[in-house]
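$ ./design --mode recover --in tokens.txt
reading tokens...
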């Protein structure tokens, strides 16, 4: 059997995040739904960017953030995601490898530029995401390196991959390779709008055993099981046969399996600056713990510690090493 060299392989849309603080009125003027994530085309992306004022640019993407979080814990992550041969693509490659993530996906040489997400942060810390996908939509099965998948304890993929047809094929190819090598497959549902688009397919991934572990927040799991009652959604998740890592904001997190349910509290944060990346960093901590054979309780606690750290500043990646923060909370990483 192939030796495990990576705690997790994270696969997703390679996107440069562009952040700006805005007032509630800005969202109303632009006709934006607070807290939503939507896809936009080139012309709108340029127009919105020009109205954003002062910005901060950081290499991002949900799965990329999770990979960076695992590296910050002192782990060994790998990443698949498509960027172009342009300035943003150069920055993305430099940033990912510079954080300790193994990243070597072939770059796009065609007309589409590197993707970017414009993230508007309102005073309450909520984020509204406007994403131009560009080059990342060209991720395909040919970009899936079997040796890397085989060497990862868990292959973790974004629900957003279900939008482009070739990326969906790549998702399924990676899952098949992972299971062939007795590795686990995980999905994050990404957002409730993504769930609404692919509900039947996502539940099929769980029931068919394609996915072993699902990450979701309260809105996403309710959307998946079409219920307004959280307890009903939790029961449905339990019956799915897969493990569910459910984040509940200030209420902490819950790990649901057919055999047991574990709940852990959130870390207290007095000043929430930006909720962007909280779920991504929870996944980083939990996946790291899972790969290192932590108990479900300890893995979830580590996830909450990581999530609490990232919401104290602008941006979806750690500002300081999570390894030190974990050690301060009694974890040996």
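writing sequence...
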């Amino acid at each position: 059997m192939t030796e495990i060299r990576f705690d997790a392989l994270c696969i997703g849309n390679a996107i440069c995040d562009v952040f700006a603080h805005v007032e509630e009125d800005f969202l109303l003027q632009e006709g934006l739904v607070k807290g939503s994530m939507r896809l936009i085309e080139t012309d709108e992306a340029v127009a919105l960017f020009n109205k954003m004022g002062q910005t901060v640019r950081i290499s991002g993407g949900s799965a990329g953030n999770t990979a960076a979080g695992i590296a910050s814990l002192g782990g060994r992550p790998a990443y698949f995601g498509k960027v172009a041969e342009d300035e943003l693509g150069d920055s993305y490659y430099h940033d990912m490898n510079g954080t300790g993530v193994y990243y070597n996906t072939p770059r796009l040489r065609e007309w589409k530029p590197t993707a970017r997400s414009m993230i508007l942060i309102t005073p309450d810390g909520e984020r509204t995401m406007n994403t131009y996908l560009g080059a990342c939509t060209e991720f395909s099965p040919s970009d899936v390196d079997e040796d890397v998948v085989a060497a990862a304890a868990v292959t973790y993929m974004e629900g957003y991959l279900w939008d482009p047809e070739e990326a969906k094929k790549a998702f399924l190819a990676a899952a098949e390779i992972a299971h062939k090598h007795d590795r686990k497959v995980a999905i994050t549902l990404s957002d409730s709008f993504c769930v609404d688009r692919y509900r039947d397919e996502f539940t099929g991934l769980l029931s068919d055993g394609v996915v072993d572990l699902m990450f979701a927040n309260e809105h996403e799991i309710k959307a998946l099981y079409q219920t307004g009652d959280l307890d009903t959604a939790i029961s449905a998740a339990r019956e799915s046969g897969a493990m569910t890592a459910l984040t509940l904001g200030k209420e902490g997190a819950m790990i649901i399996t057919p055999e047991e349910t574990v709940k852990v509290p959130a870390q207290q944060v007095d000043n929430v600056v930006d909720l962007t990346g909280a779920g991504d960093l929870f996944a980083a901590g939990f996946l790291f713990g899972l790969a290192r054979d932590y108990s479900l309780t300890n893995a979830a606690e580590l996830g909450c510690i990581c999530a609490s750290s990232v919401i104290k500043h602008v941006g979806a990646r750690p500002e300081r090493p999570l390894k030190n923060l974990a050690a301060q909370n009694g974890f040996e990483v």
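exit 0
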